[in-house]
Recover the amino acids of this structure.
């Protein structure tokens, strides 16, 4: 038995383990909440670890990404947030929340579990899309409370930093209307699942390269509700006023956005979900030590791109890790000058 093995159970992924984190009653009255921490292997024997957060209509399945971090000496952990993937229970609206701050408890408890399981490893937080926004807001709150001394870096993969679409969607009157609707119709659907689109470029059943549970990550996405969208817009407003996560951060994104279309061939080489110009615009709001790396021809999840841009994304990740989070014998990784914002491409 490995360290803390009594608390871990075999995961749906071979060679992975999971631990359920009970969270108590849902403030939005959809039963009791749980989150699920997933671990690659036994998790021990490393002084560094990664805690990964998924995006909307997503959960952890990407073992190649975990293997890449493990090859660099990181213990790898991923958190399926409440109502998402492994953590969604019967009767719960997928991914539904009315407050992104409502994820704080499970993030703190997951971080504590990672540090306990590894014997105090330094942790790099990783977030994709909506998970990138959630992680950024959380680390800013934790920094202001001096509550996350073990976190030493942040990696963002196409973070959801603004609402894509026509400018009218981001105008003040629209935001006010959204707030009013979120109060009285929080579960009403504002955007239905789309046929085809980005998901068809990923899953093997549709000609993609990756295999995952289509119940947990449907090809057309989950419906978007007024309540969830309002929570995200409040998060955007906080980000746009400026945050400081307090640690070096890497922002990976595609070099272009492309329209989401039923034909997967047209969305193989670009971000079909977010506007990459918005990611670039708001990158400076994350904090100091920011590195922005546009990846030519990358998809929305840069690590689910075609082989060539995916390899380029891993190279950028390796370069950043070498600079800011080198192995302990080569330095602490915290002697770089402050207020650094670089962009490579």
């Amino acid at each position: 038995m490995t360290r803390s093995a009594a608390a871990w159970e075999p995961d749906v992924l071979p060679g992975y383990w999971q631990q359920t984190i009970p969270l108590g009653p849902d403030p939005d009255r959809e039963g009791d909440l749980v989150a699920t921490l997933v671990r690659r292997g036994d998790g021990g024997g490393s002084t560094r670890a990664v805690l990964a957060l998924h995006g909307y209509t997503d959960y952890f399945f990407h073992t190649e990404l975990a293997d890449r971090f493990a090859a660099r000496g990181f213990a790898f952990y991923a958190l399926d947030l409440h109502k998402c993937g492994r953590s969604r229970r019967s009767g719960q609206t997928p991914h539904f929340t009315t407050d992104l701050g409502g994820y704080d408890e499970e993030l703190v408890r997951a971080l504590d579990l990672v540090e306990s399981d590894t014997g105090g490893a330094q942790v790099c937080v990783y977030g994709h899309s909506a998970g990138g926004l959630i992680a950024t807001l959380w680390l800013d709150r934790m920094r202001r409370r001096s509550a996350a001394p073990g976190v030493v870096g942040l990696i963002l993969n196409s973070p959801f930093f603004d609402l894509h679409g026509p400018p009218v969607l981001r105008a003040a009157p629209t935001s006010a209307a959204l707030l009013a609707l979120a109060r009285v119709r929080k579960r009403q659907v504002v955007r239905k699942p789309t046929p085809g689109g980005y998901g068809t470029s990923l899953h093997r059943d549709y000609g993609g390269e990756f295999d995952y549970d289509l119940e947990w990550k449907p090809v057309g996405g989950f419906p978007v509700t007024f309540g969830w969208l309002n929570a995200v817009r409040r998060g955007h407003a906080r980000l746009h006023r400026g945050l400081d996560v307090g640690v070096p951060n890497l922002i990976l994104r595609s070099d272009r956005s492309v329209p989401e279309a039923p034909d997967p061939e047209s969305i193989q080489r670009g971000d079909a979900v977010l506007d990459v110009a918005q990611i670039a615009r708001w990158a400076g709001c994350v904090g100091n030590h920011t590195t922005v790396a546009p990846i030519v021809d990358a998809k929305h999840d840069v690590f689910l791109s075609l082989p060539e841009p995916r390899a380029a994304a891993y190279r950028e990740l390796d370069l950043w890790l070498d600079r800011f989070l080198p192995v302990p014998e080569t330095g602490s990784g915290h002697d770089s000058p402050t207020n650094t914002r670089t962009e490579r491409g």
